[in-house]
Each structure stands twice: as structure tokens, then as C-alpha cells.
UniProtKB/TrEMBL annotation:
SUPFAM superfamilies: P-loop containing nucleoside triphosphate hydrolases. It comes from Spongiactinospora rosea. Residues 228-407 form the FtsK domain. One of its GO terms (biological process) is cell division. Keywords: ATP-binding, Cell cycle, Cell division, Membrane, Nucleotide-binding, Transmembrane, Transmembrane helix. Pfam families: FtsK_SpoIIIE. This is Cell division protein FtsK. ATP binds at G244, A245, T246, G247, A248, G249, K250, G251.
């Protein structure tokens, strides 16, 4: 009776399946004193746990009881009125700190009680995350719910011996069970999982561009993260691969990167080199680029020039320094390639194809240490289209046509961890629906994040060209 089994008992029943044989366990009589001691211990532990998790609520209840026992109800009412006025003053003085210490804990408690705890047993049973042990059903423990402005984070203690894969495989079931749009499963520590359930979608609408930022080359502001915070993409010291179907919004990322680097380019600490074999996207604002190539021959020559610069810097840095610092004499060079498949898989000239592939391989393996970064965009992420995709540390998956393509772009298991790029919505009547929405997997960060790039209009591109013309060659 006193032995602890994994998880929390859901229902004291036995299986009714005819083919299943369930043996009744041997019942050993337990002295009443042991039962009383155990239940007292569990009660005290539960009270301590409640005070630790909900200190403000417990303090209010305890204080109210003490005042009522020591004085009249008018004093209790006056104390509560003082608390209300103090809370109002706190909200007006610092809404952020009030939300952190009072508002969101109250929301978390309310959603724990009225949303998740009420549905927990049913959802766990239906999704198959519970287990039958000796004729009894046990489920994982719902430990804590924390809320913020955009999501609920549910901390769960898994059953002993349970794998994270079981939870990631049932993320869609959990989302529907809690009436949510989606559910993402993360692992904060061994034996635990955290369910991230968004309550709204700040990325549903088109994101407007921000004013042109100050001079910086390390990371540029692209748009918004799903939590409403700004999304900044690292471009210096890395390579970026952008993959997405037609109309998915690859141009928003390309022009977002260009827009973020323009002040640095004007200051001379960055250069923008464009390879535009389609002659549609980057050609519209070619004046902002230091170098521009469109034909296969021009693209091969420009890539080989980047390789030459890379080798020249490597020769100077050898034995002197291990990383690159953008300066006027050694600026960061961003090699931006729109639709790289036109230069690799779809290139009919075998000689040019080999030159381009060799230059890209050299740049993506050696370039970032000396300040040469490659930002490549493509539609088809298959291996035979771009065999170098694993050489890009940072990858972005916009809307994709097939579920298998998600792992091709972001790496194995990315879709199981919540990168549902194949489910990004689209609309024939409204091209802005889902455009620029993407999942990003950064280097050394296996958990993908959902973002949306700001939409850079044609007029804004022309304004950038007029204000930051570099005189491309």
C-alpha cells in the first residue's frame, strides 16, 4: 500500500479486455500507525510544496485568518482594501514587475486549475501516455504551469523509464486535447518535459520593417519571434541557408539581411556581394551591392574572387589571430546567392558547375573564420540539389511542400521538435498569408524557433537604393 509507483494513479480499475489476464496482487495488512504517519508526512509535504509554489496566495490567506482571529472583520476589510490600493498603485508604477510577481502567477494558477488539471487525466489516458501497473493506471505528474504574454509552459514529470520521443510523437494530440493551436515539447532536464502551448499568434499578421539600424555586422534585426520579441539573425562568423517554396517569403529574409547590413556597408566595415541567376529578386535593388553577378560565368568569377580574398586573409592571419574583426581594411563580406540551385544542380555547363561547386565548398568550409559569409536561398532542399547544405551552420525553413523536407533543411528530428514548416498556411487570394513565416535552427541550438521576417516592399527597396547606393561593379 505504501510503495510508490511511477507517476500518479489515474483510476483504480483493471482491464476489461478479454484477451488480457490481470493477476490480483497479494495484499499485506499494514499497521494503522504506519498508514497515519505516511499520510501525515504527505500532508505536511503537500502544504510545504503549496507554500513554495504559491507564496503570495498563501500569505494572503494566512494573514487574513490571523487578522480575523485577532480583531474584528472591519480591520480585515480595511487590510484587504489597503492591499487593493497597493496593487493598483503597483500596476500604475511598474506594470512589468507587477505582472512578473503577481499578475502572471495568478494567471498561471488559474489556468493550472481550470484548464490543465481538469483535462489532464483524460488527455493523458487518450494519448496513451499513461501506463498500467498491477491493474492500475498511472500517468505523468502535472507539476507546474507558468504563463507569459504569449504561451503556457507546462512542466511535467514523466513516468520512470518513459522516453521523450513518446511526447514529441503526441504533440499534435496534446495540442488538440488542450484546445491549442500547437504544442512544442522540450526537455529541461532528464526525466522531465516541458510543454510549450501558445495562447495566441503574434506572427499571424504581416510584420512591418523597422527603421534602418545602427552600424553592426554581428547580427541584424529581421523580424519577430513567436514570443513577440525581436528576431536577430547572426550573419558574421557563420553561413545561412534559406529554403522555402515559391512565394514562401525568401526575399523577406534576403532583403532583411541586406537592410540590416547597409549602415555597416556605408561605413566601410561590410560589403554586399550579390549572385542573382534569376535576375528578379536582387536585381531590383542592385545599386546597394558592391558587386553583382547574374550569368553563370559572372557568378563563378565572383565566387572565385571571394575565395581569393579568403585565402589572402588566411595567409595574413596565420599564426597571428584566430578570428575576424570587421574593419575598413578587412570588411565583412556577405556573399548573397538567390536560388543557388540554378548555379549547382540545374547548371548545364559542366565546367562552370564544377567551378561554382568548388568555390562554394571552399567558402562554406573556410570562409567564416576570415570574415566571408555565404547566405544562400533555394526552393528544393534535396541532397542532389544542394550537397553542401550541411556546411551551413544556421538554417531557415520557410513554407515547404513536404514534411520530409523539414528534416532535410533543419536536420534530423527537427519536425518532431516542433518545426512544422510544411504546415505553414498559404492563401491563393492573399499572398501575404504565411509569407515570411519560418522555423530557424541556429548553430549549437537543436531546438528550432518560429519567426516571421518583416516584409520589405518594392518602395522600401528603392528607398534603400537611393540612400545607400554602393555603385555595384
Amino acid at each position: 500500500m505504501l510503495r510508490r509507483l511511477p507517476g500518479t494513479e489515474i483510476d483504480n480499475t483493471v482491464s476489461t479486455t478479454p484477451a488480457t489476464v490481470v493477476f490480483r496482487p497479494v495484499v499485506v495488512p499494514t499497521p494503522a500507525i504506519f498508514v497515519i504517519v505516511v499520510w501525515l508526512w504527505r500532508t505536511v509535504a503537500g502544504l510545504v510544496r503549496m507554500v513554495v509554489r504559491h507564496p503570495v496566495a498563501c500569505a494572503l490567506v494566512a494573514g487574513t485568518g490571523w487578522l480575523y482571529s485577532a480583531s474584528e472583520w472591519l480591520i480585515v476589510a480595511a487590510a484587504w482594501l489597503a492591499v487593493v490600493f497597493a496593487m493598483v498603485a503597483w500596476v500604475l508604477w511598474s506594470p512589468r514587475t507587477w505582472g512578473r510577481f503577481v499578475g502572471w502567477p495568478l494567471v498561471s494558477w488559474a489556468r493550472l486549475v481550470w484548464v490543465y488539471r481538469r483535462r489532464w487525466r483524460a488527455v493523458v489516458a487518450v494519448t496513451g501516455l499513461g501506463r498500467a501497473v498491477q491493474g492500475r493506471w498511472y500517468g505523468p505528474d502535472l507539476v507546474r504551469v507558468r504563463c507569459d504574454a504569449w504561451s503556457d509552459r507546462i512542466r511535467v514529470r514523466m513516468l520512470e523509464g518513459q522516453s521523450t520521443q513518446e511526447w514529441t510523437d503526441r504533440a499534435d494530440n496534446l495540442a488538440h486535447g488542450f484546445k491549442a493551436r500547437s504544442c512544442r515539447v522540450t526537455v529541461p532536464r532528464p526525466g522531465w518535459v516541458e510543454l510549450v502551448i501558445p495562447r495566441g499568434d503574434v506572427l499571424a499578421d504581416v510584420v512591418s520593417v523597422q527603421p534602418v539600424p545602427a552600424v553592426r555586422v554581428d547580427a541584424v534585426a529581421i523580424g519577430l519571434r513567436e514570443d513577440g520579441g525581436p528576431f536577430k539573425l547572426k550573419v558574421h562568423g557563420t553561413h545561412v541557408l534559406i529554403a522555402g517554396a515559391t512565394g514562401a517569403g525568401k526575399g523577406s529574409f534576403l532583403w532583411g539581411i541586406v537592410r540590416g547590413l547597409l549602415p555597416a556597408a556605408q561605413a566601410g566595415v561590410a560589403q554586399l556581394w550579390a549572385l542573382d541567376p534569376k535576375r528578379m529578386e536582387l536585381a531590383y535593388g542592385r545599386g546597394v551591392f558592391h558587386a553583382y553577378a547574374s550569368t553563370a560565368e559572372e557568378c563563378a568569377e565572383l565566387l572565385e574572387e571571394a575565395v581569393r580574398v579568403m585565402h589572402e586573409r588566411a595567409d595574413r592571419y596565420a599564426g597571428v589571430r584566430r578570428d575576424h574583426e570587421a574593419t575598413v581594411t578587412d570588411p565583412f563580406i556577405a556573399v548573397i546567392v538567390d536560388e543557388v540551385a540554378f548555379l549547382t544542380a540545374y547548371q548545364t555547363d559542366r565546367g562552370l558547375k564544377q567551378r561554382i561547386a568548388a568555390a562554394l565548398a571552399t567558402l562554406t568550409t573556410q570562409g567564416r573564420a576570415v570574415g566571408v559569409g555565404v547566405i544562400a536561398a533555394l526552393q528544393d532542399p534535396r541532397k542532389e540539389v544542394l550537397s553542401l547544405r550541411n556546411l551551413f551552420p544556421d538554417r531557415i525553413a520557410l513554407r515547404l511542400d513536404e514534411a520530409e523536407q523539414v528534416d532535410m533543411v533543419l536536420g534530423d528530428g527537427a519536425r518532431d521538435r516542433g518545426a512544422l514548416a510544411d504546415q505553414i498556411p498559404r492563401s491563393e487570394s492573399d499572398p501575404s498569408v504565411g509569407a515570411g513565416e519560418a522555423y530557424v535552427r541556429l548553430e549549437n541550438a537543436p531546438q528550432p524557433i518560429r519567426v516571421r521576417a518583416a516584409y520589405v516592399s518594392n518602395a522600401e527597396i528603392k528607398e534603400m537604393e537611393a540612400a545607400f547606393s554602393m555603385g555595384e561593379s
